[in-house]
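Example with several molecule types.
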Amino acid sequence: MSDTVKFKWNDKEIEAKKGSNLLKAALDNGIDVAHYCYHAGLSVAGVCRMCMVEQNGVPRPFPACNATVNENIEVRNDTPKIKEAVSATLQFHLLNHPLDCPVCDQAGECGLQDNYMLHGKYDSQMTDKKVHKEKVQDIGCDVMLDAERCILCSRCVRFTGEVTKSSELGILNRGDHAEITVLKELNNDYAQNLVDICPVGALTSKDFRFKQRVWFLEDVHTTCIGCEVGCSVKVSQNKNGAYRVKPVLDEAVNGYWMCDDGREIYKHVSSPTRLHSLVANQQSLFVPAEEASLKEKLKNKNVKLILSTHLTNEEYRDVFTKIKDLNLAARVEVALYRSPDVGPIFDGILKRGNKNANLKGAIKNFEQFGFDASDDHCKKLMANVKDSDAVLFVLPEMSQSLDHLETAVKQISKAALKCAITPNEEWSFVRTFDFLCPVPTFLEKNGTMLNYQGLERTLVAGMSYGDNSKTVASYLDWV
Amino acid sequence: MILKNDLYREHGFLKGLFLGLKITMITMLRNIFGKDRMTLNYPEEKYFYSDRFKGKHVLTVKEDGTLRCTSCMLCATYCPAQCIHIVAADDSDKEVEKAPVSFEIELLRCVFCGFCEEACPVDAIRLTNEYEMSNHAEAEWVMDHHHLAFRKSLNNGRGIVSTVDDNDRMKLRL
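Resulting structure tokens for the full complex:
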């Protein structure tokens, strides 16, 4: 702590740790510095030459990303010399750029566009023909490569080398002809991060490809419910639906990255199978039903309530307080359905095998209200379902082990009344249920979850795509 | 308000009236008897507006007969009436890369401001001097790209070919 020093950047006084990265210190203090190759989560390459600065006592400009903070240094990047250097550098970056912004998915959030408005030269001085490289390359893991748009910042090469350690990417050839190449097809669980870190449109996502222009989208900063890590993410959405998920920096949990499985969590939110009202099963077809019809059937029945691990702490609390308040404890039995682990417990980077997003929070709330959250209890409850019972099954919002869930659903098929509390009717086995009761998805509710570290993660509601008028607890009113 | 007050004061009412209506009278008489009539016997006779007139949209086509539109969505972004709806998709041609699978304009919403024309980076959309638009049902006013590009009035259904900037763009190609 004692080694925090003060220095000046364009006359603005900044405090930073002595010896820390000069560019990061400036960026952390809200100073906008043009840069492409520097990424705080990766090693320093110093190849893009955009973050050039001048320092008192240093004869030549140097890149800030490769310099360290020292006491009382005076750094400037607003001098004419630096401005000219940055502008000339950008001109070189754009020499062979194909200028296909109209068809490029990065347009709107592109580093080249942003900096061109500030440092661009506008008239091309290039007289030779542009060098052409291969466009539209599918390099695996849903990543598309356009070598022409690349400015060779080498962020992706460093990412595959340092973070995933799979080293699929490399830079081939020299000079004008240097280009990013896949040495072997991408094969890692974090490949979509390449799309995020690419400052230009060279690496784009196949899943998001041409779906929407980024300026039509709004970001909601929420939490991933893909596994028990609870990565901090932003979901891009507009009134037509959710379109993509990107990680948000959270040092304590996910750092800069997230896994590819987490990129899928938006899909069920605005899918065509979302429920828009309470539906009843009529010969395997779900048709809108009156609330009264379900109310009547549920009345005075013994209810087995199976909760999923995708609910928020607040929802568990609401369910349990409702059971207490309405004196339902005699008739309602509660259990917690857990999805089985998928893959290794921890893959060494981020991903964890336990896919129960809010397992910690669920157990905490179950214990607090004196209920049994154990897996054995859930199995016992399912096995003991009688043909006079009603089952309310809160299905997990997403599942990587559908077979396991299907067996669980089959187990309760004896019950007189089977209701699934789920936001959508995507899975085929929901046809065994008599009623489907709509609830909001994770993207449509506010609340908190506890991740595997016991840290509180916040869910933030975005736009709504289905019937969100009811919560899990509100269905207990009908029991 | 009497416009030509001085004529009234000078010549009295009746003469002043005729003097004041001189131009109107001449035009009226010319219209009744003369040859270069202002009034057209529409729809038998039709008026032709200049090419700058902002009428019904047309999507131009490339020389190979496919749409020029790259579905960059700039027109849809710029459109103050939000009447342009484009669905983009991959094109099998790598040079084209992105092309619209559906391009719809809701003509009833359109205010014919011509901003789409201005926003388009590839001269794919133009406003023509076609002004005759009449339909019954509201759904008929949503024009799809088959109508916008290949309706009968455009080169007998072959569409309007545009090569604007093509040479400039190809100049730097290998």
